[in-house]
């Protein structure tokens, strides 16, 4: 049954990522700066602020709804909340297809943030609740499927965009958006047979002070990761288009190859994580988080196809390991009644950072470029910000937390 969640993760991420590839091209088209889709270089820097604003709008609605997603799930049931999110994905996807202005795209992008807040944290909490004995393994495959979607999504989007290049430009730039409602419909079909889960309400304040302290560190880490990730996400495609290539399939292949190799390197760890104790998993989380931020900073040095593939491979490997470990460790700290709430708050803190990050990153990128500097400095600043969260995690007393977990389980 948990494979349904893995498949859902793949379907939603691949169709969402496919449409993301089209956004810079669509923004250039709306500005009248796109005359053909296939070109070695395009003036992508003209729309860096618009693309960053779209990302921030998506994250703004996501942070608001994600914070309350656990409470929504308590009252409606987790499956119902999840299905509502998939329906909103469907509606927003159709809206994107028929958008004719930046403000219309902004509206539908914001609605996608609501959909995302109802789908991702609730799906993760269902996964942990329904399959407690294999939660780490299931979460790792779930995250790998998500990463795989974000790998092949740009390939799919780039292929669709390039295949549509012979169509009228007004039609061609919208073609990848068709994938969004298709993915939502497939997701709804996949979730139909999943059982409903409704837990009796439980309060976070019932947890011990030590565990609450650790959760606050996780929330802080989520916030700074959101800033760092938002800075990177808002400028990565622009950076590749400006310094390496603007050809859709070449751009997509950089993301695809690095993602696939990074994920494959992480696969052997999936079979071991459920056998590893809490303290060891926490330690691995800290180390992979540090590798993740170092790889982020190293993106500035990548000015060729091969070097960018190498750096992104390390980055994707660390992501594939750290993200599910984060959820696994958090779920050890709390009773199952609180997973939806805690995962929702974690998503909310991350998303709050992602509101700030894209705008800050895109404006900073434009400032660097306008002043004759390398736009890649954004990656260095983002990595340093992200390291703040890793240092905070490293300072948590894992032994005391382990004792708290044992006491909670025995009570």
Automatic annotation (TrEMBL):
Domain of life assignment: Archaea
Keyword annotations from UniProtKB, A to Z: Cell membrane, Membrane, Transmembrane, Transmembrane helix, Transport
Alphabetical list of Gene3D superfamilies matching this protein: MFS general substrate transporter like domains
Keyword presence, Membrane: yes
Cellular compartments annotated: Cell membrane
Major facilitator superfamily (MFS) profile domain span: 10-401
A GO molecular-function annotation: transmembrane transporter activity
TM ranges: 56-74, 86-107, 113-132, 139-165, 171-192, 213-239, 251-270, 282-302, 308-329, 350-369, 375-396
GO terms under cellular component: plasma membrane
Membrane topology value: Multi-pass membrane protein
Main location (coarse class): membrane
PANTHER family according to UniProt: INTEGRAL MEMBRANE TRANSPORT PROTEIN, RESISTANCE PROTEIN MDTM, PUTATIVE-RELATED-RELATED
Entry protein name: Major facilitator superfamily (MFS) profile domain-containing protein
